[in-house]
Design goal:
By secondary structure, the chain is of the alpha+beta class. The chain has 10 helices and 4 strands, in the order ββββαααααααααα.
């Protein structure tokens, strides 16, 4: 099943903690954890320095406390836990689905359930706030007509949804 994920399972870039200005990349492949760092300094002896790269197998990473501490120092405890989960073969396939498939799944949820889904992760929050999601939601309403499409495009699909339902509830 892991073959569905592709060669790179996870990648993240970031600057090291102060006072360092060093730049780091964490890359997790199907069988390795690679931490690359670039020294950022105005000192002459650091100019043109090649990046350092620490490569280790998944199993070795799980036992290398020093490397784990470096990941925590740069990226935080949450990223370390995610990295360890990937090294243990625990993959979150739902998070890796393409947006169009997730939007199709979300179209079967009640709106109140999508508010809970938006709290699950940043990715779901972005999807639940996206114009694509609100367009799909408005278009699925039985009362939606083609005349409304121009209005929705002009004012935004989310605003159209709340304006439309707010006025239709007041009229009832």
């Amino acid at each position: 099943m892991a073959s569905l994920l592709g060669k790179h399972l996870f990648t993240l870039n970031g600057q090291g903690p102060p006072p360092s200005k060093d730049f780091f990349q964490l890359l997790i492949t199907n069988n390795e954890v690679i931490l690359t760092s670039w020294k950022i300094s105005v000192r002459l002896d650091c100019r043109g320095a090649a990046p350092t790269e620490l490569k280790t197998s998944h199993q070795d990473f799980l036992h290398q406390k020093m490397l784990q501490q470096q990941v925590v120092a740069v990226f935080g405890q949450r990223i370390l836990e995610h990295t360890k989960s990937l090294c243990q073969g625990k993959f979150d396939y739902l998070e890796r689905l393409p947006d169009d498939i997730l939007l199709k799944i979300m179209s079967h949820l009640d709106l109140k359930d999508t508010t809970l889904l938006a709290q699950a992760s940043q990715r779901f929050r972005k999807l639940c706030d996206s114009e694509k999601f609100w367009e799909q939601t408005v278009r699925s309403c039985a009362e939606f007509t083609s005349d409304m499409e121009g209005i929705a495009n002009a004012m935004g699909w989310r605003r159209m949804f709340f304006t439309f339902f707010h006025t239709s509830k007041e009229q009832q």
